[in-house]
Amino acid sequence: MTSADTPGPAEPADPVVRALLDVDGISAAPDATLAELTTLRIGGRPRALLECATAEAVIAAVRELDAAQRPVLVLGGGSNLVVAGGDLDLVVVAVRNQDLQYSDAAGDAAAAGEHLIVRAGAGLNWDDLVADTVERGYGGLECLSGIPGSVGATPVQNVGAYGVEVAQVLHRVRWYDRATGRDEWVTPDALELAYRTSVLKSTDRAVVLEVEFRLTPAGRSEPIRYAELAGRLGVEPGERADAATVRRTVLELRRGKGMVLDDDDNDTWSAGSFFTNPVIRDEVLPEVRNRVAKKLGDGPAGQMPAFAAPGGTKLSAGWLIERAGFGKGYPSSSSPARLSTKHTLALTNRGAATADDVIALARDVRDGVREAFGVELHPEPVWIGCSI
């Protein structure tokens, strides 16, 4: 290699990555670590990190890296990841397109009481989108306020909170199919959306580029189905409310549980709800109640939250975790990784935690719930270079 061919100090060593820097909308972030880019504040250093400001830049980066057989991590807001430390054998493609467009028929839709469509770039901060829709007087996304991450991640895991899931308001998704090389818009049925999952979760099938959602121009919320939220709002379950009021109330509830990101509060340094609410077969429910009764008594067994769900009965992961003996702040104030002091479903980084610390805590909680009640908890985050 001649001196002219030698990469400069700020240039990536990988020739494929260097060539991508000539593409409009692509830039490199030298010396970046995943700890700087994930809400859990954990993760090592990738081979390179490419910031992609447009959908076309995302496509170009993923296409060329796939063709060169480079391991790729497509990164949005970093809110649902547990990443190993050290040097990571992968190139990060950071999706940063943030375009926002409302349908031209907004005025006509409002007059007719119909839905309108908002189209958002996958790299747009999710709560910024929610805030903008509510400020414009549109309803539909308000119950999903305060959820960290990017727009592109929401259909991947069918994000949901306070009785609303993305599946209820999703109109279309634009994705880049990595197998076929097609850039196309698809309807929700193509995603096979289910509880906190889709065909895109934990796979490399496609990259989300843009997302369209249905909104209600009248400024009324989605039906309020979550009992705690309905009580705070003073409405009956199933009723609608003012979208702005719902957003404020949801944010208050989330802050009370440490579920709104705050750089100065380690209780919010998490991947959100770490375990999904388990769904068990209906015939297993009596045995679970029996085990709760043996451990806690008949009263708690009868009061255990249980709801009908596709495939059986849905239980509360947070309720099971606490009743298995894992209280808020577990295991101790000196631990680098521990449960939030506000919400037992959040595993938090107290400032110096590693992936190994988080994994050890997650296994402790998972195994403890299984031993106590015979229920298997499943983690919600995506694992990069490590596993539970």
Automatic annotation (TrEMBL):
GO terms for molecular function: UDP-N-acetylmuramate dehydrogenase activity. Pathway: Cell wall biogenesis; peptidoglycan biosynthesis. Coiled coil: none annotated. It is found in: Cytoplasm. InterPro entries: FAD-bd_PCMH, FAD-bd_PCMH-like_sf, FAD-bd_PCMH_sub1, FAD-bd_PCMH_sub2, MurB, MurB_C, MurB_C_sf, Oxid_FAD_bind_N. NCBIfam families: murB, PRK13903.1. Cell wall formation. This is UDP-N-acetylenolpyruvoylglucosamine reductase. Its EC number is 1.3.1.98. The active site is at R196, S273, E380. Residues 42-218 form the FAD-binding PCMH-type domain. PANTHER family: UDP-N-ACETYLENOLPYRUVOYLGLUCOSAMINE REDUCTASE. Its cofactor is FAD. Belongs to the MurB family. Keywords: Cell cycle, Cell division, Cell shape, Cell wall biogenesis/degradation, Cytoplasm, FAD, Flavoprotein, NADP, Oxidoreductase, Peptidoglycan synthesis. Pfam families: FAD_binding_4 (PF01565), MurB_C (PF02873). It catalyses: UDP-N-acetyl-alpha-D-muramate + NADP(+) = UDP-N-acetyl-3-O-(1-carboxyvinyl)-alpha-D-glucosamine + NADPH + H(+). It is an enzyme of class 1 (oxidoreductase). It comes from Dietzia aerolata. SUPFAM superfamilies: FAD-binding/transporter-associated domain-like (SSF56176), Uridine diphospho-N-Acetylenolpyruvylglucosamine reductase, MurB, C-terminal domain (SSF56194).
